[in-house]
Design goal:
This protein has 116 residues and is mainly alpha-helical. The chain has five helices and three strands; from the N terminus they run ααβββααα. 50% of the residues lie in helices and 8% in strands.
Length: 116
């Protein structure tokens, strides 16, 4: 894949936006990291071939390197909650079912012609 340097900046920006949306919809969490951290992780992986593991601990918002080093990251609280609880967009909406039903009932009283 081409690096950001070989792709026009506006294309990269659009790709990142689409990619972020697609990953959210598919339960994938991109973890932004400084290039130095990525290079250190790669070195740790190379140092233990066949047995190297990287763990992403979403509950504690840390990446755990093959040597046990922890790298904190930030994630939106709503996104974190949804991922930890397996909630897609519809399931997140349904957590507000009682409020939705109360609004619908009130709206049916105020504007019955809309609900025909």
């Amino acid at each position: 894949m081409a690096s950001d340097d070989t792709i026009p900046r506006n294309v990269v920006g659009v790709w990142r936006l689409l990619s972020a949306t697609a990953t959210d919809q598919n339960g994938i969490l991109p973890v932004p990291m400084r290039i130095e951290e990525v290079e250190l992780l790669a070195d740790e992986m190379k140092a233990s071939p066949g047995n190297a593991r990287i763990t992403v601990d979403l509950e504690n918002s840390v990446v755990i390197s093959p040597t046990g080093r922890t790298i904190p990251f930030q994630v939106d609280a709503k996104r974190q909650h949804a991922m930890l609880n397996g909630l897609d967009d519809i399931a997140q909406t349904m957590t507000h079912k009682s409020e939705i039903e109360a609004w619908q009932k009130a709206d049916q009283s105020e504007r019955p012609w809309v609900w025909l």
